[in-house]
Amino acid sequence: MLVDGFGREVTGVRISLTDRCNFDCVYCHNEGLGDTRGPMEPQDEEMSTDDVVRFLEVAEEFDVEAVKFTGGEPMLREDLESIVRRTPDSMAASLTTNGVFLPGRSEKLVEAGLDRVNVSQDALDPAAFREVTKSGAYDDVIEGVMAAVDAGLTPVKLNMVVFEATAGYVPEMVEHVAEREGLQLQLIEYMPELAGRPDWAIDIERVHGWLADQADRIEHREMHDRRRYWIDGGLVEVVDPVGNEEFCANCHRVRVTHTGHLKGCLNRNDDLKPMGEMTKPEIRTAFREVVNDRVPYYGEYMIKDGDEWVLNEKYIDA
Ligand SMILES: Nc1nc2c(ncn2[C@@H]2O[C@H](COP(=O)(O)OP(=O)(O)OP(=O)(O)O)[C@@H](O)[C@H]2O)c(=O)[nH]1
Ligand SMILES: C[S@@+](CC[C@H](N)C(=O)[O-])C[C@H]1O[C@@H](n2cnc3c(N)ncnc32)[C@H](O)[C@@H]1O
Ligand code: SF4
Ligand code: SF4
C-alpha cells in the first residue's frame, strides 16, 4: 500500500469517467474538472474502457481497496457496466450519480458487480430541485433512487449539498431517510473553492448542532474524520471539508480525471500527473509520484493566517 509524506495510506481511488453531464447544478465543482456543459456525446479525450481497467489493475497491485466512479455524470458512459464488470474483485466498487439513468440500469450494474450507489438529491420539492439542478428530472431521480434500493445497491446514500438554497430542506430529508429502508443521508458542506460564490455557504457547525440535538447516537468515521448521527433509526453523515484540517489529515483518496490524469486532491489542479500512453509501467510511475506529492489541502496547501486560510507561499509557483 502506498503512503504519502503525511502518513496517509491510499486506500481509495475516485475516477471521473467523463466531465459531461445532463444537469447544470448551480454549485457544481465537477470534481475540479471545470464546466459540465457541452456536447453529450462521448469525447475523444475520455479514457477508454481498457485504460480505466488497466488503471484499476495497477491500483489493485498497490492494495487500493475501493473505487468510486464519478464525473460529470458517470452513467452517460455506455461502457459503465463493462468497466464495473472488469473491476478487480478485490475492490469495492461504488458510483456517484444524479440518478436519472438508474431505472433500467440498476439491475445490470448489480449483475456487473457494483456494490452501492450515491445519488445526488438536494431537496424533496420539485421546484427547489429544478432551481438547483436546472433540470426537470425530479421524478426520474426519485424513481432512480427506488430502482437502486430495489436492486440492492444499498445503502443508497442521498447526497445533499447544504447551502443557502437547500439548508431549509435538511429536516425533511432527515425524516425521509429515517422512514425508508435502504437510504442514508450525506449532508455535503457547500465547497466554494472551485464553484465560486462564497456567499452561498452556510455555517456547517449550526447543522452539526441541530443534528446533535436530534441524535440518539453520534459516531466518528476515521475516513475524513466524518461525524455521523443516528436520528429516529436513520443515518446522517456530514461531509465538511471546508477549512477542516482534520478532514484533510484523514484523506485516503487519489483521483483520476476523465482524460487520464492523476490528481492528488479534489481542490487542486496544479498537481495533475499524466499517465502517458497508460501502459502499466507508466501508470505505476505516475501513481507513485502523485502519492509522493500529496499534501493535505487544508493545513499544508492552504494555511492559517490568524483566522484566515491563505495559500501557502511554497505552492504559488507549483
Ligand atoms: N474536499 C473533498 N470533498 C470530498 C471528498 N470526498 C467526497 N467529497 C465531497 O463529497 C461529495 C460526494 O462524495 P461521494 O463520492 O458521493 O461520496 P463519499 O461520501 O465521498 O464516499 P462514500 O462514503 O465512500 O460513498 C464529493 O463530490 C465532494 O463534494 C474529499 O476527499 N475531499
Ligand atoms: C460532481 S458530482 C458527480 C457525480 C454525479 N453527477 C452527481 O451529481 O452525483 C459529485 C458530487 O459532488 C457534489 N458537489 C458538486 N459541487 C459541489 C460543491 N460546490 N460543494 C459540495 N459538493 C458539491 C454533488 O452534489 C455530487 O453529490
Ligand atoms: S449532476 Fe453532478 S456533475 Fe452534473 S452538474 Fe450536478 S453535481 Fe455536477
Ligand atoms: S486533501 Fe482535503 S480537500 Fe483535498 S481531496 Fe483530500 S480531503 Fe479533499
UniProtKB/TrEMBL annotation:
InterPro entries reported for this sequence: Aldolase_TIM (IPR013785), Elp3/MiaA/NifB-like_rSAM (IPR006638), MoaA-like (IPR040064), MoaA_arc (IPR013485), MoaA_NifB_PqqE_Fe-S-bd_CS (IPR000385), MoaA_twitch (IPR010505), MoCo_biosynth_MoaA/MoaC (IPR050105), rSAM (IPR007197)
Residues binding [4Fe-4S] cluster 1: C21, C25, C28
Listed GO biological process terms: Mo-molybdopterin cofactor biosynthetic process
Catalytic reaction annotation: GTP + AH2 + S-adenosyl-L-methionine = (8S)-3',8-cyclo-7,8-dihydroguanosine 5'-triphosphate + 5'-deoxyadenosine + L-methionine + A + H(+)
Pathway the protein acts in: Cofactor biosynthesis; molybdopterin biosynthesis
Keyword flag S-adenosyl-L-methionine: yes
One of the record's GO molecular function terms: S-adenosyl-L-methionine binding
Residues involved in S-adenosyl-L-methionine binding: Y27, G72, S120
Residue numbers binding GTP: R14, K68, T96, K157, R253, V254, R255
Keywords: 4Fe-4S, GTP-binding, Iron, Iron-sulfur, Lyase, Metal-binding, Molybdenum cofactor biosynthesis, Nucleotide-binding, S-adenosyl-L-methionine
Residue span, Radical SAM core domain: 5-235
Family: Belongs to the radical SAM superfamily. MoaA family.
NCBIfam families given in the database record: moaA_archaeal, PRK00164.2-1
Protein name: Probable GTP 3',8-cyclase
Organism, scientific name: Halocatena salina
Gene designation per UniProt: moaA
